[in-house]
Amino acid sequence: MELDPSHFLSLPRPSGSTSLNGDSSVVDTTTLAAHDFDVDPRTGFMPPHPPLERLPDRLDGMDYVRWEEALKDAMGGEGKERLQLGDRKAGLTKEDKERNDEWRERVKNLPMLEIRPLLRSELMLRRAHHVLAWILHFYVHSISSPQNQIRIPPPLSVPLLQVCREMQMPPVLTYSDDVLYNWALMSSSTIDPNNLRILSSFTGTPSESHFYLTSARIELIGVRALALMQSTLDELFVGDQIAVRRITGYLSALGTIIAEMEVELKKMPEGCDPSLFYEHIRPWFRGIDFMKEEGWVFEGLEADSALEQPTELSGPSAGQSSLIHALDVFLGVHEFSHKESNANSFLSRMQSYMPRHHRNFLSHLQSQNTRRSLRALVFDGLDQTGGNGYAPMDDGHALLEAYNSAVFALKKFRDAHFVIVARYIIGPAAAVDRPTAAERASLEDAPLKGTGGTDLARFLKGVRDSTREAIIDL
Fold first, then answer.
1. Does residue 382 form part of some domain?
2. Euclidean distance between CA atoms 72 and 172, whole angstroms
3. How many Cβ atoms sit within 10 Å of the Cβ of residue 289?
4. Gap between the Cα atoms of 406 and 410, Å rounded
5. Residue 226 in contact with residue 253, Cβ under 8 Å?
6. Which stretches are tagged as biased composition: Basic and acidic residues (predicted)?
7. Pick from 20, 15, 24, 26: which is nearest to 49 by CA?
């Protein structure tokens, strides 16, 4: 689908050298300019150009090469061995532990680098968040015997918190660090789902790369859905018979696109081993929501009076995908999936882990859908009398069928996601983590948690069932 050149998704993106100082760091949500939402008509929530693979080695006297080298060493660059999970139940050798300890000691002794030179570019800030958040997770999860509090040293904690303050992001690994800004092109300059490779990886395994790339490919498939959403919202402002027929076509196409996303999701087992994922990849993602016993203390905050100690840090989660949230908002499913929620609910909470521009996109989409509700149009079509500002229509049942098909496609996508979670987390947890009788007694009230700290099975079933409830019955 070609977009009009004046369409907000077709307008120029922000310059990579745009300053983030002062008022310019506040996103203008009063316009529909693409640079206010950082959404591209070709790549959606993924950037239209490959993310930075490295920060400048030295910029205005700051040796950012030290951060890059620390991450590279953790990942086993230049013939070095990768860091290993500190809490591996078996297989952590004395050499592994010594290597982990030596690397963390080097992180403690990093120079205290200022972030001011990075403020000239959103792209450099993204890379800084990526590098520092990955170092953070390597640091925390390579500890063999964590104490009640894991202390993050100032050379890591201070610049990370300062970068996060500028980006309005949490100081922890997020979906954007793992997926949106964690890729490069394998060849040529074409951004194609099959032309991507992963930049950062905890294990260096094909399974981990496939895990991230599956999400990236789903994001790229969903680009067409974003254009259909905006076209539908445009037609909602017209609300006549022609508009209704067009909306019906858009919704039918949307259901097809969501089905394509489901097909891609189901390819996860083709390249990602469930046991390897559960035992060796997933533990690196954990935030403090998952690690209730070991809190993280960010040291050195006295160096900057504006910094505060983080209190809630979830790990990366598919719940942080702006694309899936956008589908929920557009179809009105969020009215059901959030019906028992408040500001602290998981789905609402995950929006704070999204890039700020994408959060504003969702806010704008919701405001557009509130003024002219798609579900209201569908309901009006059933009695053919018109209402809520819409004209009477003859094609109400076709519109209803198209709407329900899109919602049902989203429900099927969530069915597929639940199957993946059962295969990659719930099943392996039952097979690997068999507690003793005494341990079972103490864990009876401790359900299996997602990396975001949720009761995993209950949450996923609830969201899936809420999506089904959004289907409108005759």
1. yes
2. 18
3. 20
4. 6
5. no
6. 78-100
7. 15
The partner residues of 44 in beta bridges, in order of sequence, read 40
Whether residue 412 lies inside any domain: the answer is yes
Q: Is the dihedral of CA 183, 186, 190, 193 positive or negative?
A: negative
Residues 99, 93: Cα–Cα separation, whole Å: 10
DSSP code for 186: S
Q: How far apart are CA 117 and CA 34, in angstroms?
A: 26
Q: What are phi and psi of 151, to 5 degrees?
A: -95, 125
Checking if the pLDDT of 227 tops 80, the result is yes
Residue for token digits 């050149």? 5
Span 395-434, pLDDT tens digits: 788 999 999 999 999 999 999 999 999 999 998 888 765 5
Q: Mark out the alpha helices in 142-289 (DSSP H runs).
A: 154-167, 175, 206-221, 223-236, 241-265, 274-276
Q: What is the mean pLDDT of residues 99-120?
A: 98
Q: Dihedrals φ, ψ of 226, to 5°?
A: -65, -40
Structure-derived torsion over alpha carbons of residues 406, 409, 411, 417, reported in degrees to the nearest 10: -140
417 is in an annotated binding site: yes
**Helix ranges restricted to H, 286-421:** 322-331, 334-337, 346-350, 356-371, 374-383, 396-421
Tell me whether residue 29 is in a domain. Answer: no
* Measured CA distances, 170 to 8, 49, 54, 94, 334 (Å): 28, 24, 21, 34, 24
- Tokens 């015997």 sit at which residue? 145
Distance CA 45, CA 146 (A): 37
Query: What's the chain's length in residues?
Result: 474
Of 82, 84, 179, whose CA–CA distance to 130 is shortest?
179
* Domain count along the chain: 1
Residue 216 token pair: 């990236």
Report residue 320 as tokens: 């942080």
Q: What is the DSSP string of 380-404?
A: HHHHTS-BTTBPP-S-HHHHHHHHH
Does some domain include residue 329?
A: yes
Q: Is the pLDDT assigned to residue 287 strictly greater than 50?
A: yes
Q: What is the pLDDT of residue 440?
A: 39
Q: Is 436 left (phi over 0), alpha (psi -120 to 50) or beta?
A: beta
Taking only the tens place, the pLDDT of each residue in 251-286 is 999 999 999 999 999 999 999 999 999 999 999 999
Largest CA distance in the chain: 76
Residue 444: domain span: 223-270+317-469
Distance CA 375, CA 473 (A): 12
Strand 183-185 relative to strand 196-198: parallel, antiparallel, unpaired?
A: antiparallel
Distance CA 93, CA 173 (A): 27
388 confidence band (pLDDT: 50, 70, 90): low
